[in-house]
Amino acid sequence: MQNPPDQHEYPSHWEADVVLRDGGTARIRPITVEDADRLVSFYEHVSDESKYYRFFAPYPKLSDKDVHRFTHHDFVDRVGLAATVGGEFIATVRYDRIDAHGRSASAPADEAEVAFLVQDAHQGRGVASAMLEHIAAVARERDIRRFAAEVLPANTKMIKVFTDAGYQQKRSFEDGVVRLEFAIEPTEASVAVQRAREQRAEARSVQRLLRPGSVAVVGVGRAPGGAGRALLDNLVSAGFTGDLYAVNKAFPEDLAEIDSVPAHRSLSDIGAGVDLVVVAVPAERVPEVVDECGAHGVQGLVVVSAGYADLGEEGRERQRDLVRQVRSYGMRLIGPNAFGIVNTSAATRLNASLAPGLPRPGRVGMFAQSGAIGIALLSRLHRRGGGVTGATGVSTFVSAGNRADVSGNDVLQYWYDDPDTDVALMYLESIGNPRKFARLARRTAATKPLVVVQGARHRGVSPLGHAVPATRLPHATVADLLRQAGVLRVDTITELVDVGLMLAGQPLPAGPRVAILGNSESLGLLTYDACLSEGLRPLGPLDLGTAATPAEFQDALGRALADRACDAVIVTAIPRVGEGGSSDEELAGALRAAAAAHPGKPVAVAHVELGGLAEALAQASATVRRPPAAGTAPAPRPAAVPLPAVPVAPVPGGSAPGAPDAPPGPAAAPTAVGIPAYPATERAVRALGEAVKYAQWRREAADPGRVPEFDGIDSTAAAELITTQLDASTTADDPRGFALPDDPARALLAHYGIAVHATLPADHPDEAVAAAQLLGYPVALKATAPHLRHRADLGGVRLDLADEDQLRRAYAELAESFGAPRELRPVVQAMAPRGVDTVVRTVIDPIVGAVLSFGLAGAASELLGDTAHRLIPVTDRDARSVVRAIRTAPVLFGWRGSAPADTAALEDLLLRVSLLVDEHPEVVGITLEPVVVAEYGLSVLGASVRLARPPARDDLGPRTLPAY
User: For the residues 541-560, what does the mean pLDDT come to?
Assistant: First the structure.
């Protein structure tokens, strides 16, 4: 775009697609000189009342001077943004920097006057709220810290936009005008409001896809066969409750129906609105269909056509164009290369997928990025015999294909408060925004389990078709962070279904104590061993004997469930030996009766050669919630212990404006007892183990801890030091940053109470002696060359040198073993108290965010990958848990009779490092190695710090959809 000489370069990074309150989309972008005609046309479609509210007087049309003013911006002191749909303006917002007297100004003035105008047809869609987020982010980028707005008292909608935003405001009334002033730095309240609006909008956008009132399939063939005809047949056979249309421009003009479904040559021929269009035409014809959908007011598309990013760079560009085109009309897209979507609700009965039958209705939501995996998941949940079976079915299913637009994050937003979904299962091959996914997963997991299996995790690249930004963090680190968010990570599709069945049909266990009973001693012992391997605490197996009757099973299970010493029960069963063998149905009925009499604990069955038992146990599953009695609340999901919901960014003093009144509660109990059955003991135990972990996470996450305040921290001095170093660096704009010299690094850490042992260079033996005399004996002599640094195992470190003779002798030995001093880079340090060597690191990943890592120092820990991670900011609970999360943690707690290390001092250090990084995003990396944790106190012997200028936007920025 062309800009006049007084304008700065066009800020393309301000462009963004956003989801509005009703689930539609709009594009927000800067207004330029080329928008004059659009602005005039937009203004002509605004009512006289809205114009009056904007200009405080009748203002029927814009003058040429107005048009010039509203389209010429310098993108610093004067900025205008427009929201567009179909390329046309639907709303505008602008700010003008002002001084203390309200006059036009330039920096360093840090206040601006802001004003909105929204087309009447689009008011009430949340357009102004979204634009306020974006114009505030732009203003912060230009060093503006406060907004002022003048509004007529009658303009209650605009006043509400400001008052509901969550900012602390100052309101005054003068000359018949309400004046609002507020700081625009994100606050806890404003972020909570923003995220509540994000959830509502994105959930609504998915709801419009999964609960359409009308569906058209474009690309239906006249003869059976082909994807389009299969999709139509599946919609018909599922009994879709809305209006259904078949569309193909090749239909003869006199063709009225295809299998009793109205047939049309184009969408424009349909004399009614269409909510959802399923596209099954070749990729080169899809843009034509999208234009037709946009003109017809369609809300969303499912594109099953292939030939996009799954075919390489040319297809990837075609996919980008598709997303831009779809969003330009305010629509959402599932696909391309999608398998389809399913909603088994009796009110919808939607099977807009290539699955030949509507899955059994149930309470499990499923998301898959692979069509083949989606088929496998649906088949396994549907089957009753022959493999794993259980007591549930599907509520909704989304197979997103290349997931160019609608992603797993969007579906999580929908499931969060979907009353028909109790458990969420996801197969992911890539995570486009791990930071957001972790945030949404934590909130979802607070009320319903989320089980994830991730494919393609060892390839090092995203699967074909998945256009996602890459994280620099190892997969294990991302997986660790997701586990902290309450995600149950499993390794296979089989485990995904196993765990899902356990969580969908059973109450959550109060702890890890497991009773084992059955009619096979061997199976009982195998189950006992499997429990120990999963970290459970099994009780001694109870062998009922191979001739045990259903009544004996029922009695034993009832006693086990009533025993306060157990939290869950696993029943093992083999075919009965002896006369009068009972049927599978009898045994299933006995087990269900015992479980129904004691509903507070989970039960699982491991069976051998009893396929009929699995099917019989599953027959009691419920597909709908039990309706509450008149005047009562719905029954809660049975649980052995109360599991409070995890708090999610509460607004101080009450709920977030625009947020749901409260997060949905735990899932309701099934109407009858359905017991999941597994064909192998280890599968039953693994599923129960994941349920125990989830219940424990729910209990712990209810109190996430706090970020403590420390005395003696000088954040201002740290900021000044950072600014000085950035200004002096020639590589500050490199996202990877630059390493601070030792002295500034130590000074920066010292501002946060982190003392680093003095290290003096010793390029000659005499310098080493002088350094030792300054520091005081005993000392350590270390080689700091890259190949020897932190490698005591190679002999590059000499400790406890008590005098000059020992120091000179050690210096000579190092030189003889490893080379000249200029190659060794030797240094001298005062000896620190003996203790456990550990490593503390932080890194800022552009996708995941700031991460704190902790582990023991040494090659063994590195080889084993024994490192724990937490997202920054770290709370006191996080600091305590990360120290205990590594497998080698016992070394810190008196392993083999050694003195316990001062873990309190270690946790304090972790909190201080986290606070430094959180308060100064310019600190993109810290490494403290080694940190020697003694019985009393600790010593930081080595430290490095990296700085870089922070990105213009961060996770507290405005709502946006992924850019293409």
Answer: 94
Q: For residues 891 and 925, is the Cβ–Cβ distance under 8 A?
A: no
C-alpha 246/C-alpha 371 separation (Å) is 23
Residue 209 backbone phi and psi in degrees, to 5: -80, -40
Report strand pairing: 257-258 vs 243-247. Answer: unpaired
Q: How far apart are CA 718 and CA 708, in angstroms?
A: 19
Phi, psi (5° rounding) for residue 879? -60, -40
**Do 382 and 359 contact (CB within 8 A), yes or no?**
yes
**Segment (H or E) for 200:** helix 188-210
Closest CA to 204 of 656, 624, 658, 657: 658
Strand partners, 179: 150, 172
Question: Where do the H-state alpha helices sit in 776-898?
Answer: 804-818, 821-824, 859-864, 876-885
Residue 368 and residue 425 in contact, taking contact as beta carbons nearer than 8 Å: no
* pLDDT-based confidence at residue 457 (cuts at 50, 70, 90): low
Distances (CA, A) of 186 to 193, 583, 705: 11, 65, 22
| Residue 812 three-state SS | helix
Check pLDDT > 90 for residue 664.
Answer: no
Length of the chain: 964
Residue 809 corresponds to which tokens in the numbers above? Answer: 């002798």
Average pLDDT over residues 646-672: 37
Chain segment 52-103, per-residue pLDDT in tens: 999 998 899 999 999 999 999 999 999 999 999 999 999 999 999 999 999 9
pTM score: 0.84
Residue 430: pLDDT band with limits 50, 70, 90: confident
Tokens of 27: 């594009």
Kindly report whether the peptide bond that precedes residue 660 is cis, defined as omega within 30 degrees of 0: no
- Consecutive H or E run containing 868: strand 867-871
With H, G, I as helix, E, B as strand and everything else as coil, classify residue 245.
strand
Q: What is the DSSP letter of 120?
A: G
